[in-house]
Amino acid sequence: MHVFDKPIVMIDFETTGLSPDMGDRITEVAALRIEGGQITDRYVTLINCNARIPSFITGLTGITQAMVDHAPPVAEVVPQLLDFIGSDALSAHNASFDEKFLRAESARLNLAPAHEALVCSLKLSRRVFPGLSSYKLGLLSSQLGIAFKSAAHRAESDAEVAAQVLIHIGRHLRSNYGIADVDAGLLVALNKLAAAKVPQFLHKHPSRR
Question: Could you tell me which of 124, 113, 165, 119 has the C-alpha nearest to residue 144?
Fold first, then answer.
């Protein structure tokens, strides 16, 4: 029985806003590699995009203008980040948000991400644990008994909790449905299903013991 024998990289960006198409930029990234049900490696850094940090972002994250002004430049960080991710599957809580920033910042440098799959832990939680009161990371994690070790709304702290949520889901699928091999392919398939169809799908899964 295996949970994530093939690595999955959990990523979280802090940003200046919600949309790279509107000129918003990344200010911090954490990428945590999950293998065999645990975090085995991490890449974490603040990022200097020569962007202005809105006061409400500083209020939310604690990331100040001075912090990013003295951080490594984006032209250095993004290539290192893409090398770290490689072709491993990528995951994030609300994955479309983080992936669009990854692709936008990569495109600015004429680079392209090479991850082989994208897993959204937010969508996955809705399908595997239907009926919870909230799927926002902080409230979801507390409902699953997963605690933040440091302040929320910083990249490493959020990525760490999201990684633990993903590991929790993997173990839940193994113990409750007898799925022998939990991997990115299974999670991508679950992401695409309606929640009501998930139990039947899992009970018929070929890797059930």
Answer: 165
Retrieve residue 192's tokens. Answer: 């695409």
Q: Which residue in 2, 93, 115, 153 is the catalytic one?
A: 153
pLDDT band at 19 (very low <50, low <70, confident <90, very high): very high
195: burial class by Cβ within 10 Å (0-12, 13-18, 19+)?
Answer: middle
Q: What is the per-residue pLDDT across 88-116, written as a single tens digit (0 to 9) for each? A: 999 999 999 999 999 999 999 999 999 99
Residue by residue, DSSP assigns 12-74 as EEEESSS-GGGT--EEEEEEEEEETTEEEEEEEEE-B-S----HHHHHHH---HHHHHTSPBH
Which residue shows structure tokens 């990289």? 9
Question: Taking a C-beta distance cutoff of 8 angstroms, is the pair 10, 159 a contact?
Answer: yes
**By C-alpha distance, which of 41, 108, 33 is closest to 77?**
108
For residue 121, give every residue at least 6 positions away whose Cβ sits within 8 Å of its Cβ, in sequence order, or none: 10, 91, 92, 93, 95, 162, 165, 166, 169
Q: Is 115 a catalytic residue?
A: no
**How many angstroms separate the Cα of 52 from the Cα of each of 63, 95, 131?**
11, 25, 40
